[in-house]
Design a protein that fits this description.
The protein has eleven helices and twelve strands. It is an alpha/beta fold and about 280 residues long. The protein has two domains: about 130 residues, Leucine Dehydrogenase, chain A, domain 1 (Rossmann fold, 3-Layer(aba) Sandwich), CATH 3.40.50.10860; about 140 residues, Rossmann fold (3-Layer(aba) Sandwich). The strands form two sheets. It has a six-stranded mixed β-sheet with strand order 2-1-3-5-6-4, sandwiched between helices. Strands 9-8-7-10-11-12 form a six-stranded parallel β-sheet, with helices on both faces. The chain binds NADPH dihydro-nicotinamide-adenine-dinucleotide phosphate. The site of NADPH dihydro-nicotinamide-adenine-dinucleotide phosphate (NDP) has 30 residues, from helix 5, helix 6, helix 8 and helix 10. NADPH dihydro-nicotinamide-adenine-dinucleotide phosphate binds next to helix 5, helix 6, helix 8 and helix 10.
Length: about 280
């Protein structure tokens, strides 16, 4: 009997990743046998660990913090979304043994917002907090989904400016200073793409940012999202959602790239939400 295909998620740290559970649940929907493990690689060991994994028969890999930029750099081919973001969260093996990099963060966020939560993003004035790897992954997708304007505010302003320059739509995309958040007025879509919740520091945000019918979304989930979601609700947001649905949607995109079949994400999302 042939061995099950081998998949893995690379990160540092990575022990608490939900990806093995998500991919096994997807695989069960199709009766696919696979092995999916976590591989903790320090940044200096990442490239060797990836090449070793694929040389030993690995069929596909997810990549998370802090390796998304390195995954993009080591790939031989890159999808348009990965190229725009300059980072990759999925690696696939090409028939000739080379590696292709993909970035599914933006598609995953927009699908979670528009299909799971039934949000219509068209015409929204959006504020994005953060300009790191995840922000670069989702910025273009928010614009493609029809947000009217996107204001990017990052603690380090140069990074926000670089992202706005890369997008190159000055009529729709603006940057502002973090110190000036209290003077920006209100937005009807606020996306927290900072890692403040994950790092444990939290954010001090003015309530005035939240418009009357605002939708607030934290890319983080679980305990890391509690502070931002509590702030959003206290400020009167109509909706306050975390990034668990985005995680499941991005995983479904990876699964489709590897297996050529798209899983039903809803039962997997609900099972994770119940266990939350
Ligand atoms: P990066 O390290 O690439 O970027 C971190 C960003 O957060 C930077 O903009 C950084 O600003 C900012 N930041 C960090 N701490 C603070 C702080 N105390 N105050 C203000 N800004 C801060 O991380 P990622 O972009 O990869 O990840 C960001 C978040 O998105 C994480 O919570 C991650 O878990 C989540 N994520 C969720 C996904 C999902 O599927 N749900 C997928 C991908 C990411 P500066 O430039 O000044 O350092």
């Amino acid at each position: 009997m042939s061995q099950p295909s081998q998949f893995a998620v690379f990160g540092h740290p990575i022990a608490h990743s939900l990806s093995p559970r998500i991919h096994q649940a997807f695989a069960r929907q199709f009766g696919i046998a696979l092995e999916y493990r976590t591989i903790d690689a320090a940044p200096e060991d990442f490239a060797a660990a990836v090449h070793g994994f694929f040389a030993a028969g690995g069929a596909g890999a997810n990549v998370t913090l802090p390796h998304k930029g390195a995954a993009f750099a080591l790939a031989d081919e890159r999808s348009e979304a990965a190229t725009r973001a300059g980072s990759a969260n999925v690696l696939t093996l090409l028939p000739d043994g080379r590696l292709a990099a993909h970035n599914t963060d933006g598609d995953g966020l927009v699908r979670d917002l528009t299909e799971r939560h039934r949000a219509d993003l068209r015409g929204h004035d959006a504020l994005m907090l953060g300009a790191g790897g995840a922000a670069r992954g989702v910025a273009w997708s928010l614009l493609d989904a029809g947000v009217q304007t996107l204001t990017i505010v990052n603690r380090t302003p140069e990074t926000a400016d670089a992202l706005a320059d890369a997008i190159g739509e000055p009529a729709r995309v603006h940057t502002r200073y973090w110190d000036d958040l209290a003077n920006l007025g209100s937005y009807d879509l606020i996306v927290n793409a900072t890692s403040a919740g994950v790092l444990g520091g939290g954010l001090q945000l003015p309530l005035s940012l939240v418009g009357a019918r605002a939708l607030c979304y934290d890319l983080a989930y679980g305990n890391a999202a509690i502070g931002f979601l509590a702030w959003a609700k206290a400020a009167g947001a109509r909706y306050a959602w975390d990034g668990l649905g985005m995680l499941v949607e991005t995983a479904a995109d990876a699964f489709a790239l590897w297996h050529g079949r798209r899983p039903d994400t809803e039962p997997v999302y609900q099972a994770l939400r119940t266990a939350d």
